[in-house]
Amino acid sequence: MKMSFRWYGANDQVTLEKIRQIPGMQVIVTAIYDVPVGQVWEYERILALKKQIEDAGLRFEVVESLPVHEDIKLGLPTRDKYIENYIKSLHNLAKAGIKVVCYNFMPVFDWTRTTVEYPLKDHSKTLAYFKKDLENINVYDDDVSLPGWDTSYKKEDLRHIFEQYSHIDEESLWSNLTYFLRAVVPEAEKSGIKMAIHPDDPPWNIFGLCRIITCEKNIDRFLKIVDSESNSLTFCTGSLGCTPDNDIVSMVRKYSAQKRIAFVHLRNVKFDNDGNFYETSHLSSDGSLDMVAILKALHDTGFDGYCRPDHGRMIWGETGRPGYGLYDRALGACYINGIWETLEKEKCSSH
Ligand SMILES: [Mn+2]
């Protein structure tokens, strides 16, 4: 398993120099953030980013994310042009040595929370989702902005895009995803890249917009669309695990054994039975997920892909991008390293 860390580029206050000092850190996960969605990532830009990362003593092998244009998710006639651009970007990334490309297929909104400053008992702050708070939001009438939302949508644009999605039910979203995968995965495969879809976060419909990468049944269906290791998962324990409906440990074991997990996001969450959750430290006893059992499932199945600590709380007075401070994610990485080392040594001593 290769340990990685998400970095938001030259403007990230969590610098490459700081990241490199986290024990066991090898790989940077990042993206080119200033290219508009749907346009090609030029080879020279990718190479410059790679050089910057390598100069800091780290490797650039995972992209998160290469975003999918809304027209592809909507199945509009313009999608072919955007798919063509997507493939060009994949070829350029492969040429620069990228191994895994994370993306998602969530309509309009990325991850959705109702607060990024939920106070825990220890006075740290974390991301949380409370169903009641979400139900009180009217996306049409209110001037709302929630964390994770693409703020580039103006109110009128948002109204328009909701109008477009009013024709998209689950089956049409599946069909648009299928169209995309059948075009893109063979190209990824040829160039040695694993496409790794990130599950929907949270894994249920938001504001009437369908979400389909949500549960074992749907992930089984997804993997069958193109049966190739280049059509893989970013298994995000926190996204799929924010509801008791998903058995995370058994899903990890199954998909890792099938060699369909290219990238793992490790994060813990505390959920209740009413659709609410908040993110916790990585420690098993702080949340609803058993980190040792998850890592053991990966270890038993010979997982050799990439993992990263996912969101962290804000601790020790740190401020910055919600979920992406240095301290709690670094603690998460160390905790994961400790569990993994134990599993490795247990394996050696049992032989
Ligand atoms: Mn994730």
Automatic annotation (TrEMBL):
Question: Would the keyword Manganese be found if you checked this record's keyword annotation?
Answer: yes
One GO term under biological process is:
D-glucuronate catabolic process
- Report the cofactors: Fe(2+); Mn(2+)
The molecular function GO annotations come to: ferrous iron binding; manganese ion binding; mannonate dehydratase activity
- Quote the pathway field: Carbohydrate metabolism; pentose and glucuronate interconversion
Query: Does Manganese appear among the keywords?
Result: yes
UniProt entry keywords in alphabetical sequence:
Iron, Lyase, Manganese
**What Pfam families does its record include?**
UxuA
Fetch the InterPro entries from UniProt. Answer: Man_deHydtase (IPR004628), Xyl_isomerase-like_sf (IPR036237)
Q: Kindly list the residue ranges recorded as spanning the membrane.
A: none
* Assigned protein family: Belongs to the mannonate dehydratase family.
Q: What does this protein do?
A: Catalyzes the dehydration of D-mannonate.
Q: What is this protein called?
A: Mannonate dehydratase
